[in-house]
Amino acid sequence: MTFEKFFSPSSVAIIGASHTKGKIGYAIAENFVRESFKGRVYAVNPDTTPILGLPTYKSVLNIPDKIDLGIIVVPAVFVAKVLKECVKKKIPLVIIISGGFSEIGEKGKKLEEGLKKVLKKSKTRVIGPNCVGVYDSATKVDTLFLPIDRLKRPKQGNIAFVSQSGAVGSTILDWLAVEGVGISKFVSYGNAIDVNEAQLVNFLAHDENTKVIAVYLEGIKSDGKQFMKIAKQVSKKKPIVVLKAGKTAKGEQAVASHTGSLAGSERIFAAVFKQTGLVEAQNWEELVDFAKAFSMQPLPKGGKLAIVTDGGGFGVLAADETERMNLELPEPSASMVKNLKNKLPTYVSLHNPFDITGDATTERYQLVLEEILKKEFDGVIVIALMQVPTLDNKIINTIVSMKKFGKPILCCMIGSEFTERVEKMLENNEIPVYQTPERAVRAFASLNYYAKKKKEIM
User: Fold this and answer.
1) DSSP 3-state percent helix, strand, coil across the chain (nearest 5)
2) I need a labelling partner for 40 at 20 to 30 A (CA). Which of 26, 146, 395, 437 fits?
């Protein structure tokens, strides 16, 4: 069965929808009313007074129409009863938002086992429990119960996010929205009594709107061998960036009390990353940074990186990080140096990093970038400090025009309002911008790592 209807159902039943503002069941109902969701929406509540104008029924069994997606938001002790009704109604897909299951201990584990028994002989597939569910930027299916004035939703894009933790996943969404980075789909799967991370990644491999898959993972809910097999297959098609939490002893304990998962040691997951082509992020900043690079830029054909800057110190910082990342930072050929010397001031440094100094103009950047990307290098990091009076908005078109070479271009810019406006315009044109040279270098390293791994596993 396809999972497509989790993200684009024709009809939705919100079971546990509330008349009271501030309740989770009200917030989810409000999402479907507020957003431009095109399908039919029904509320289920013992009080059948319409909720936000939605037709309201005592039970999902009373709804006269076929339902594609059920969203359960009732206390844990009532979830099994409601799920049985969804199965009887032949609802193919259900999201259980409710918490209070294996993550709270033995009492919750028994309730969770009860849900599994309900599903055992049914065709109904379930995401959750203990999750925030899904968000689709195109269809506007939105089960996030976090109000839009506190958690902004990202625009449409090509990054899909899969998160075991609703808190981590939704916070990343809020950050991406502020940064102006788009997503295709988001799913928080919580305790994963049925649908697991491997199945979701496999589904996203075939999603036309998704170019890169980003995953926050605490423990593997699927069979380990199944996960590795699917990860390797999907990595041949699309990059999967994974932030694996719970790799330390204390982290493992925290994971067990959060989603009831077995976390797995750092050594085990190091082997998984190596064998499957997954790209590892060390923290959630890298998770977003790497996903942004894959979303906006092509893969490099090799690891020869050039760094161009109008601030020598930032070039040094970037050079340090390239060595830590085992990237190549080769010197330009004699012919390239000769070509550039004829066109540039004598005080410009034509080593790599290329320091075109604090009086750099847009024209100077253009000359150097054209020469670099034409032949000898596989990608470039452009560090442009916009505080210098010789640079203006023209640099945006100059950098964007370098996409004609089909090589990765990543930028580093640091500054206040003027710089931030330039950053936004660059990212609107699919040029990723990072606030430190180290972050830009690590993002390029992730592109280079995946490009090499992809060749190995093909």
Assistant:
1) 45, 15, 40
2) 146
CATH number of the domain where residue 110 is located: 3.40.50.720
Q: Please state, in angstroms and rounded to a whole number, the distance separating the CA atoms of residues 28 and 292.
A: 29
Domain count, the chain: 3
d(CA 280, CA 296): 18
Q: 139 in a domain, yes or no?
A: no
Which residue segment(s) compose the domain that 411 sits in?
A: 299-457
Q: Are 178 and 152 in contact (CB under 8 A)?
A: yes
Rounded distance between C-alpha atoms, residue 444 and residue 353, angstroms: 15
Q: Domain for residue 142, yes or no?
A: no
Residue 346's SS3 state is: coil
Span 287-336, pLDDT tens digits: 999 999 999 999 999 999 999 999 999 999 999 999 999 999 999 999 99
Distance CA 8, CA 12 (A): 10
Whether residue 185 contacts residue 176, with contact meaning beta carbons closer than 8 Å, is answered with no
Reduced to 3 states, what is the DSSP secondary structure of residue 402? helix
Helix ranges (H only) for 181-310 are 197-205, 224-235, 249-259, 266-276, 284-296
Same domain, 97 and 188: no
- pLDDT for 131 beyond 80: yes
Task: State yes or no: pLDDT of 227 exceeds 70.
Answer: yes
Residue 145 lies in a domain: no
Mean pLDDT, the chain, integer: 93
Pairing mode of beta strands 133-136, 183-188: antiparallel
Evaluate if residue 264 carries a pLDDT over 60.
no
pTM of the model: 0.93
CA distance 289 to 281: 9
